[in-house]
Amino acid sequence: MKHDKIERNLGILAILTMLAISAGGMVEIVPLFFIKETVEKVEGVRPYTPLELRGRDIYIREGCYLCHSQMIRPFRDEALRYGHYSLAAESKYDHPFQWGSKRTGPDLARVGNKYSNEWQTQHLIAPRSLVPQSVMPNYPWLIKNALDYSDIQKRMLALRTTGVPYSNSQAEYERNVTEFGADVAKQLHIPDAEKNLIGQEQLNNYDGKADQVTEMDALVSYLQVLGTMVDFKKYADDEFVKYR
Amino acid sequence: MSQDNNTNTTNTTGHVWDNDLQELDNPLPRWWIWGFYITFVFTIVYWLFYPAWPIGDNYTKGVPGLNSITYTATQPNGEQVEKTTHWNMRSKFMVEMNELQEAQKKWFDKVAAMPFEDVQKDAELMQFVNSVGKTMFTDNCAPCHQQGAQGKIGFSPNLADDHWQYGGTYQNIEETIVAGRNGYMPPFKEVLQDEQITQLANYVLEMSGEPHDAEASKAGAALFRSETAACYYCHGENAQGKIQMGSANLTDKIWLWADIPGSKTDAAKLAEVKRVITGGLNRGVMPAWSGRLSPAQIKLLTVYVHDSLGGGK
């Protein structure tokens, strides 16, 4: 039999296996980069502000994604509980995206503005003080730790190399003004990152501690923006069907 | 090892272990091979019915009309349009939602058309309100107001009693759910001396029937209505609060921000009230739900909070 030759020759078997897998990958993954409808055309999605970005980093550091997904699937039960299904466009600036694959806790894709800042802060310090049946661990150090934002510019530069439109020059800044409007564009300007980060914290004081930028401020600012960028009321309820 | 086990064998790999252990090399069973070929046929049928092959910046969507989905879409202006598309998860989802809306429409329309007061007179309708309302309450309200709507001292008000900071009529409750609320009381640490704050705290405790220093309370009562502290601006001449601004009724035994029921000693109670007057409050934020729930859902939830939780007034 001919396959004897393949099965008895380890080198050939390895090469052919890799070819077969790559063909599968080419057909399934590569077209997504070219098919125009993969990422929906929708208004409002913007990169994270410096404070939100640090919050996202803390979200990753604490392993929130291990128990919380950020991906509402197009099923009735999920829509009733969490809201509109997630769009690819909503995580186009997420590197890495935080879709997750495990829901020990609820999905967080649209948790933004659902609860008050005070609720989020208290709930992160001691979840069971508000939700008695919760199995979430306590994260009391977030409000004690001052936020280290000394490397915020480097973090934004790193994301910029992956295609997130943070601006590092006047020309890039003006491009952002055209695309996102002046208010957002200012937040995306790398040279002003520290100033913007402190400014957002002082304006909102997410954790209720006025004198310090804490890790809690950053994380709550991130949670409060999740899923809020797109105003779905502007669209028909089947607007995003045509992208599939 | 007996040779009997190998009697049907035509081929072995030629490897021998332990002098008599051999590895068989028979062809795959015929049923397996045919099963394998059938999967090829299955994929071809699949391509005809479902989106499959990527081509350039587009993809095949199955043979038109063979497996299409028809659903009803709602435009932002409320207009309904029937649409037909090739099979995909999102149009399938639209059908699911259409079916749900169809099943609930009768009840939601009934609630929407009725004045608030009449809903609870319809026992069958109230079953729907209780069932849907409980789910909505658990998901949206219970994280702050707790599962039994009992609230939490120092965090969120009780919705099951007859006291309503922002008013307990149907209209008040609906307004609260739609637009949310922001609690605020200015801090008095810069305005008043510590002694004056102690006097006010004693007065507040006296009004609620708690242990207090009568003399200090008397001075507090005067201070309450003076222009120095001006407490009466928000809490009213009679200290019963004003629902327009959500200021607390200080004459009842209900506490939200100062934890009096949890304070064991008289000194601790005084300290709790002083803490609130000194630092003020920039809390009690309730988010707006108009973006998350539809007007019909909010009306139903209003009825649920007012009539089913037993908190109406």
Structure report:
Chain A: This is Cytochrome-c oxidase, cbb3-type subunit II. Chain A: Its EC number is 1.9.3.1. Chain A: Keywords: Membrane, Oxidoreductase, Transmembrane, Transmembrane helix. Chain A is mainly alpha-helical and 244 residues long. Chain A has 2 domains: 2-34; 50-243, Cytochrome c-like domain (Cytochrome Bc1 Complex, Chain D, domain 2). In chain A, 45% of the residues lie in helices and 0% in strands. Chain A has helices at 3-7, 10-28, 30-34, 50-61, 76-82, 117-125, 141-144, 152-161, 170-180, 182-187, 193-204, 215-223. The radius of gyration of chain A is 22 Å and the shape is globular. In chain A, 32% of the residues are buried. Chain B is mainly α. Chain B folds into 4 domains: 4-49, no CATH class; 68-104, no CATH class; 116-180 and 287-308, Cytochrome c-like domain (Cytochrome Bc1 Complex, Chain D, domain 2); 184-286, Orthogonal Bundle (Cytochrome Bc1 Complex, Chain D, domain 2). Chain B is 44% helix and 10% strand. In chain B, the strands form 4 sheets. Chain B has a two-stranded antiparallel sheet with strand order 1-2. In chain B, a hairpin with a 3-residue loop joins β1 (12-17) and β2 (21-24). In chain B, α4 (123-145) crosses α10, α6 crosses α7 and α6 crosses α9 (266-279). The longest helix of chain B is centred in the first third of the chain and has 25 residues, at 89-113. Chain A binds chain B through residues 1, 27, 30-31, 34-37, 74-76, 79-81, 83, 85, 113-119, 122-123, 130-132, 208, 233-238, 240-244, and chain B through 27, 51, 54, 56-59, 71, 73-76, 81, 83, 85, 88-94, 96-97, 100, 139-140, 143-144, 147, 152, 155, 282-283, 285-288, 291-292.
